[in-house]
Amino acid sequence: MGDRSTVTDSSGGTKKSPRGGALAVETLRLGREYRARRGPAVLALNDVSMEVEQGEVHGLLGPNGAGKSTLMKILSTVLLPTSGTGRVLGYDLATEHRRIRPLLGIVFGGERGLYPRLTARQNLRYWAALYGISAMNGSRRTDALLEELGLSARADDRVETFSVGMRQRLHLARGIIGDPRVLLLDEPTNGLDPLAARQLRELIQRLAGEGRTVLIATHDLAEAEVLCDRVTMINHGRVVAAEAPKTLARLVHREERVRIRAGSSLLDQVRALPGVLGIRAADDGTSVVSAAHQEAVGRVLAFVVQHGVTEIRTELPSLEEVYLRLVHREETRSVVPR
Ligand SMILES: Nc1ncnc2c1ncn2[C@@H]1O[C@H](COP(=O)(O)OP(=O)(O)OP(=O)(O)O)[C@@H](O)[C@H]1O
Q1: Residues in the chain with pLDDT < 50?
Q2: Looking at domain 253-314, which CATH architecture does it have?
Q3: Which CATH class is domain 21-247?
Q4: What is the value of pTM for the model shown?
């Protein structure tokens, strides 16, 4: 499968992000309204501005109905925005979809995109042909992908006999057979057992390591935390945050944590240190000390080390906590009358 050299630069003049990287995806005040024959129109996306750098693994997070699928469909050029603009690798989403399509790999899962009565090999060769890859190259690429995704032994079995995990891997193979520069994945590890999910994550990381950009819509926050360089959280069609998971945790919680294993009298002394917000007992018998700022963390660390504590870990709130805080805050806001 492709090494860096296979990722060619054929973009339409890409812009740089404020962080200095060339942009794979950018949207500016993108909106999408669905108009029903009856009933009110639904504003699925509202002023969405986001940036994804080339080579980045970027998570798109949000509750059900937030607008993730709508955004993915617009980025994959199957749906037009009703307002705003967007570019993929420098090409305009509304007017240059023919240029964008060959650069994209789309994995939306479910039953779409695979022919169950064909074998895995036949499916991939068919998709290779659709991407305009010659029969010889298509066959070579098919073999390499089946091998890489652990499907070689079942290459000539019909897809209808495949497990959920095998189909999911085949979906990914289909998505990358055209050697795309940008991969759009919707819930890629949905329905996979933990081992298969982990293997798929490793593959996604490898694909990004080859210089490809990966945009993943997921409900799995732990997955987003390990996989994504940055995440964009959306709720009710609006961007509520866009940052690296760790940065988000700092911005949202403004607190740091130190996990220690210590007796109750020592914990009482730690609780009294300046800048300590509280201490919570964890299930594994350790105690989690919340500190207001880095200086307080330093104070706690120095104190516990001085008193012979050996099990010490600093940590940030999880992405799940950040998500709940941000989305919950939005929900609370949205019930306040305007
Ligand atoms: N074709 C459509 N016609 C009318 N409304 C739609 C259509 N597609 C989506 N919507 C509405 O737009 C909003 C956003 O939907 P979307 O499917 O993009 O959300 P999502 O974040 O992908 O949700 P989920 O995680 O449940 O898939 C929802 O209110 C949904 O009901």
Answers
A1: 1-11, 334-338
A2: 2-Layer Sandwich (3.30)
A3: alpha beta
A4: 0.77
